[in-house]
């Protein structure tokens, strides 16, 4: 029997496993194997990945420190994260000409957990594994415990300990259970253990859209997305090459090439208005969210005009950082004795910025202050 079973091998699960594995017998349970994208939701499409390492395997490597409502994170935890992930901003000579133009317009360099000396500027951070970028797989390699993959949970029983059974009949027994399957799947798993009508409610997704147009030889497609950014009250703007934007522009300009597309992402701090259902996600844009997106589009459009872009195009709003879906149920990590949740699902409100370092910090806090 294990001391701890952790469901999910993404940012939270991998962090907790690495920390707990030093002193306890721990197993990580993962539904998938190779990271695979999933998409849910009809109004705002919500994208995430499952498999070893979770969504962060395809992250853009962004590191922004921000306050987490309801959770005080000590400074030494962030210091440790910056050292472990070797977080830094790119040197000036790493920047492309388009990045430098944005900096002239008031943008700043994004700190990232990317080794810029190893980065070949393929522009495919969100599509493939990369040796230049930190991912939860790095923590899993340091983890002194067991990992089981392709474990699709059927039932979870609690009889003084936790017995997790998958659809193929495999069993895992543990004294304690930590659910870290992310903003979409953690509430679905917790439903197997407790009955609470608030499970799945209060969902946010850091709704984003990309606006842009044609800027000859800008080569943003051969750059790390979000390499430079500008922060506003409830949204950020950042450089972002979008294939969806390219496809939209190509409808009008048949001969346009990917190297000629320049885009700005507007990522907002959206309201907790969504809900995770058993087989779907319900997320709409509220009036306040719409106002924020419009403000962001207006700001972004002005910058694009200054760069020389004439015709402006936009993608549909999407979400890629689901969270908050257990914030009405779980407080301070613990559901009941021996049962914990730790991941973006317990954030009380949207961060409005890339959340990976915040999730790592939250996970380290769980291990040090609670377990």
From TrEMBL:
**Source superkingdom:** Archaea
Report the sequence similarity comment from the record.
Belongs to the GMC oxidoreductase family.
Keywords in alphabetical order: FAD, Flavoprotein, Oxidoreductase
The answer to whether UniProt assigns keyword Transport to this entry is: no
Per its UniProt record, what SUPFAM superfamilies does this chain match?
A: FAD/NAD(P)-binding domain
Which GO molecular function annotations are given, in alphabetical order? oxidoreductase activity
Residue ranges annotated for the 4Fe-4S ferredoxin-type domain, each copy included: 110-140
| InterPro entries associated with the record | 4Fe4S_Fe-S-bd, FAD/NAD-bd_sf
| Protein name as catalogued | Glucose-methanol-choline oxidoreductase
Pfam families attached to this UniProt entry: NAD_binding_8
